[in-house]
Amino acid sequence: MNVLRQSGIGIALDDFGTGYSSLAYLQKLPIDKLKLDKSLIDGTGELKAAAIVQAVTALSRALGMKVVAEGVETQAQQQFLRVAGCHFLQGYLFSPAVPADQIDAFIRDGWPAGSPRCRSLSQSPTSILQR
Fold this sequence. Notes:
alpha/beta
C-alpha cells in the first residue's frame, strides 16, 4: 500500500463502521480517505450514532484524511454531516447510481430537467463531487 501511495495513488478505506473496522486501521494504514458506511449514517438521528460519526470524522480529519459519508438519503442527514465536517457526501439524496457509460453525460449535463433532484438541489453534480 505504501508503494501505491508513493506512486501517487490515493487509498480509501471503504465501509468503515461495519464488520472488522478498527480505529487502529486509521493509524496503521496509509489512508487518504475514510468512507463512513451507510449503517452509521442511518443512525445519525440518534445521539449515540451521531456521536460516533462526529468522533470518527474529527479523528480522521485530525489524521489528515478526507471523510466521505455514504448512503445520504435525507436533508437532515446532509445538514448533520456537513456540520460534522464530512468532506464528501454520496447517496440517493443526490442521485441514484449512474451506469458507467452514462457518467460523462451526467457530469457534463447534470440531472435530467424536471427530475426531483434537479428541483431540490441548487448545485450541479460537479460542484457536489468537488466538495
